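Order emerges. As here.
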Amino acid sequence: MERIPILRVGELLLVTIQVDMHDRLVMRLQDDLTESIVANRSKGVLIDISALDIVDSFIGRMINNTAAMARVLDAQTVVVGMQPAVAITLVELGLSLQGVQTALNVEKGMALLAKRTSRK
């Protein structure tokens, strides 16, 4: 079964989505991510979506739900690499990504997470 890799970088987890997401893959990612947060006592999750050219309401909900799960487990979430067309689509779909910080790239996202998690 296909999996999206979750890399540990100190207290943070890095997820890079480079494939088309389908229901089973999303559910597997959410399970794997929540297990990784608990197992590693991670304080932050960075989700890189720079490889996604388009999104639909399903992907938007997936990002929202994943961030909500991370929050319940005391981890901050930052989404990076959002293409302009993706941002426009999310706004047009009415998806605000509540509780999700965004950054332009992985470097800026990691810096934001480091700053946010060091305050805890």
Remarks:
- The CA atoms of residues 9 and 42 lie 9 Å apart.
